[in-house]
Amino acid sequence: MSLALTDYDYPLPEELIATRPLPNRQDSRMMMLHRREQRIEHRMFAELPQFLLPGDLLILNNTRVVNARRFSDDGKIEFLFLEKLGSARWKCLVRPGRKMRVGAKAALDGVVVHVEEICPDGERIVLMEGELDPWEGGMVPLPPYLRRQGDVEDLDRYQTVYAETPGAVAAPTAGLHFTPEILGGLPHTFITLHVGAGTFQPVKVENISEHRMHRETFSISATAAAAINAAKRTIAVGTTTVRVLESAARDNDGCLVPQNGATDIFIHPPAEIRHADVLLTNFHLPRSTLLMLVSALAGREFVLRAYEEAIRERYRFYSYGDCMLIL
């Protein structure tokens, strides 16, 4: 076990960052990690159905990414609209922050937007002096490490085929590999967690136990709770699904109950993941909370050995990259 930030680092050649999706979703490679045998296997995502057992249940996050990135009419201010707080009030991120102090103004489609408050974490509370839905006509807020603006292709591909409930500013990327045909043939259910901008927040403390996670809202329907409770083996699709399963309230018998809630859970070694038996996930950034979560499930040394092999085998990394199935 390690709580040192540097122990979750690894060198990644920049050319292995997948800046664009593959032509076909299901064509991603899939590295399999067999925890018990500490064995690594190389497969394709399209082979996933053959590794499911009777009684298995896929649990997927059906949040939908909103077009939250907007630029002021003069092009000088970039907004990332995170959450609607009232009829005309929004929480957002802005760049450059020095130009958007309390009282500062900018225009979007001719509507004046002014800063009411600066939150402790740098987010802005803004008031719109007119009718405007900033998610209408905005752009997909791609992760910063892709180093490009979202375009027409991303409107479709940076979205899972089962995305339904709007509210995320980042995609639950483990689900990007599924096609309707593959998913339709597998037992599955949906939960919702709206991925926030904090998912890209770097860990800045050397002792990772001192890091504080962002808060994200989630919901579990009665149908989903019943399916999850009846499953013999739960297969979490993505780290966001794991965060919901580990955070959600349960009754006295340990059964999941339908609920709406919020979580700021930070899962890292030596924590034990109790409610996800298998995880399908992408390859994550060095020093990231997502890499730490995966390490809590499979062990830091095994995970980093798998990442070294993925680099040798030229896997594609991050949001549009290949995936990993941890058994």
Number of helices: 6
According to DSSP, the number of beta strands is 17
Report, as a whole number of angstroms, the end-to-end distance.
Answer: 20 Å
What structural category do the secondary elements indicate? alpha/beta
**Portion of residues in helices?**
10-25%
Largest sheet: 9 strands, mixed
- State the assembly state of the protein chains: single chain
The CATH homologous superfamily of the largest domain is called QueA-like
* CATH-level-2 architecture of the largest domain: 3-Layer(aba) Sandwich
Order of strands, widest sheet: 2-1-17-16-14-3-12-13-15
> How many domains, in number, for the residues?
2
Any low-confidence stretches, pLDDT <50, length ≥5? none
Please state the average pLDDT score.
95
The ordered H/E elements are: EEEEEEEEEEHEHEEHEHEEHHE
Classify the beta-strand content into a percent band.
Answer: 25-35%
Shape: globular
Radius of gyration: 20 Å
CATH fold-level topology of the largest domain = QueA-like
Produce the secondary structure layout.
Blueprint: E1 29-34, E2 39-44, E3 56-61, E4 63-65, E5 69-71, E6 78-84, E7 89-95, E8 105-108, E9 111-118, E10 124-128, H1 152-157, E11 165-168, H2 180-184, E12 188-193, E13 216-220, H3 222-230, E14 233-237, H4 239-247, E15 259-263, E16 278-282, H5 289-298, H6 300-312, E17 323-326
Parallel strand pairs: 1-17, 3-12, 3-14, 4-11, 14-16
Antiparallel strand pairs: 1-2, 5-6, 6-7, 7-10, 8-9, 9-10, 12-13, 13-15, 16-17
Helix pairs in contact: 5-6
